[in-house]
Amino acid sequence: MKTFRIIISVLFSLLVLAIISNLLISTLGLFFNIDVLFTGNYFNQSPSLNIKLIFVFKAIALLAFVFGVFVLISKINIVVKRDFFNDKLISCFETSGKLFLGAGILGIITSITEIVNRVLLNDLSHQVYLNIDSKGLYIMLMILGLFFILFSKVLDKGRKIQTENDLTI
């Protein structure tokens, strides 16, 4: 189990590093007008307010996702001990589920807004800095969030049944 925890920690660290570096590159490009990706857009115009707002909401969605993963990983010791009906674990699954669901909803809304911004407003400048997501990822996050919320309710019901059984014996 120790190697399992080490692998999870390494993967989580890589996830955080990838997301933070992506957010840093996009922040430098959109808010400080540094042409990090060498797109050549900064000779013509600065990013529009729409692009900046879409980026901020996508960044919030990504950070909520990372925090949800952190909440899950932080309670891995409870799972290793096989204490599945622990209140902290149940609360952890519910919190992670809500974070994943919120991140998915916010992400899909901003992705739709990005498409509208691109098609209707014809705002194509600096779109390269918004390519930090996948629409499918947000749908998967919503499904995963609903699953964790449902799973926490099932574990809570199981905990109540276990408590009742312990009292009747």
From TrEMBL:
Glycosyltransferase found in the keyword field: no
Pfam families to which the protein is assigned, alphabetical: DUF2975
Ranges that cross the membrane: 7-34, 54-78, 99-116, 136-155
Organism: Paucihalobacter ruber
Designated name of the protein: DUF2975 domain-containing protein
InterPro entries assigned: DUF2975 (IPR021354)
Keyword Heme: no
Keyword line: Membrane, Transmembrane, Transmembrane helix
